[in-house]
Amino acid sequence: MFSLDYLSYLFVILIITGLLIITMDAKAYKKEGKKKEKKFSLFLGWMNIGLGVAIVVANWVYDTWFW
Fold this sequence. Notes:
This protein has helices spanning 5-32, 35-66. It is mostly helical and 67 residues long. The longest helix has 32 residues, at 35-66. The protein starts with a helix and ends with a helix.
């Protein structure tokens, strides 16, 4: 599925860091009562996950229809 070896590593790194940001940072900011930091960490976590999924989908589309 992955034509370039680096895309699989990038996908895994983005998903793992997104999950870690959501689970660890957002909870820590919630405990401390920092609303802006919690919102931004949730945004960054979901952006990492979204980018990871988008990379997999874009690579699959490229491999299936354009290559």
